[in-house]
Amino acid sequence: MSKKVWDLLCDGAVVYVAGSSTEMPSDVMSALGEIVSEETGGSKEVASRRLKALEKAQRYNVEACLVYEDAKSIAPEVLGDLRV
């Protein structure tokens, strides 16, 4: 499966991540980093730079939100005027 993802990225695919802001974006970025590292034989640092380049080129986009269950664990002073 990682080869297919890598091939899609090489062919110009755009990645959109949508979901909870607590773990989903970092989990997806981590998984993509592993794929890039595995498929290129490069280090995690090189993979990270490649993924940052995807972000800069607007080919990696995150639309994450704070869901109610996540918000309950955040200190009120962090949320400010937002009421959960």
Automatic annotation (TrEMBL):
Does the record carry Flavoprotein as a key word? yes
Q: Which SUPFAM superfamilies match?
A: Ferredoxin reductase-like, C-terminal NADP-linked domain
Which molecular-function annotations from GO does this UniProt entry contain?
A: flavin adenine dinucleotide binding; FMN binding; oxidoreductase activity
User: Which keywords label this protein?
Assistant: Flavoprotein
- A GO CC annotation given for this chain: cytosol
PANTHER family on file: NADPH-DEPENDENT DIFLAVIN OXIDOREDUCTASE 1, NITRIC OXIDE SYNTHASE-RELATED
The protein here is known as: Ferredoxin-NADP reductase (FNR) nucleotide-binding domain
Native organism taxonomy? Eukaryota, Viridiplantae, Streptophyta, Embryophyta, Tracheophyta
